[in-house]
């Protein structure tokens, strides 16, 4: 079934399938790549994309509490940064 669907959807461009699906009473949408998702205007409007101090874009934390804003660390860990903590476990 997966092979059939893949071949069927590859046979015509995305715009064709979007127009065809629009005629049906169903929920649908294309699967975005990561760069497409980060550039999605709906995510930006909802504050779901944040920019770190180096200018890189990231997805914002999904769970956010009113009086406790999340403070994620948007950098890669330094070499050995968590070694001592992990060895204590």
Description:
The protein is mostly helical. The protein has five helices and two strands. A hairpin with a 5-residue loop joins strand 1 and strand 2 (57-59).
Give a brief description:
The protein is mainly alpha-helical. The protein has helices spanning 2-10, 14-22, 34-38, 41-45, 83-87; strands at residues 49-51, 57-59. 37% of the residues lie in helices and 7% in strands.
Order of helices and strands: HHHHEEH
CA-atom Rg in angstroms: 20 Å
Tertiary shape: elongated
Query: What is the beta-strand fraction?
Result: 5-15%
Report the strand count.
Answer: 2
Low-confidence stretches: none
In helices, the fraction of residues equals 25-40%
Itemize the secondary structure elements and their pairings.
Elements: H1 2-10, H2 14-22, H3 34-38, H4 41-45, E1 49-51, E2 57-59, H5 83-87
Antiparallel strand pairs: 1-2
What brief labels describe this structure?
89 residues; 5 helices; two-stranded antiparallel sheet; mainly alpha; 2 strands
């Amino acid at each position: 079934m997966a092979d059939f669907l893949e071949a069927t959807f590859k046979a015509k461009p995305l715009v064709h399938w979007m127009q065809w699906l629009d005629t049906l009473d169903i929920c649908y949408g294309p699967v975005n790549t990561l760069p497409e998702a980060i550039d999605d205007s709906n995510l930006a409007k909802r504050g779901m994309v944040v920019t770190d101090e180096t200018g890189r874009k990231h997805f914002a934390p999904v769970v956010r509490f009113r009086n406790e804003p999340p403070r994620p660390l948007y950098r890669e860990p330094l070499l050995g940064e968590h070694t001592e903590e992990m060895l204590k476990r």
